[in-house]
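Molybdopterin biosynthesis protein MoeB: structure, please.
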Amino acid sequence: MNRRGAKPLLASLSGISVVSAAAVPQALSTVLDTRPASEFKASHFPEAINIPERSKSESWVGTFIEPKDGFYLVVDTKEHGQVQLEKLAKIGYEQFVKGIVLYGDFAGQPSTAFDQATFDRAQEQYFIVDVRTAEEAKTGPVFKGAHNIPLAELKAHIAELPVDKPIVVHCASGYRSAIASSLISEWAPKAQVWDIGEHIKSYKQSVN
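Here you go.
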């Protein structure tokens, strides 16, 4: 992003307040949830995007978050919020944060849990999306008939995803699939989405 004209970092950070989860106008707001995928799946804002904190996670934020209207930043502690703001500042996004939300015990909605036993009994009944890169998918296929849509290209292919067949998303370790499943749930709210998550490790072992 072109940062010309952006506020100095300290001024940007000092102007961001901590707001309660109940105060976020959910229907009108973009919500970026940076908590671990396990916490997000247990409870989150409807249509929130989950990009868990890790090294260079801000690059995925820049890929998927449109900053023009601002967004709320969901974290688990104030310290985590400060770390996230500093990471967002690397791409010039700290100035678009409307407020930091400490999620706490807010009663949000859970994600549909991946039912491995049900999936294993009839994998052909699912639309399997592999969000690894094309090279990863080519050299290390995991599921027969999986559709390779790299995470960075997901938005361009969202219309290709079915709404009459459950979607199962996987990557190499569970990080990219966590992001992808939250994006699909936001962009295609009628779709049924399961994130294989870290369960993918057992499938990769069986293939190898």
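Notes: The domain at 5-102 is CATH 3.40.250.10 (Oxidized Rhodanese; domain 1).
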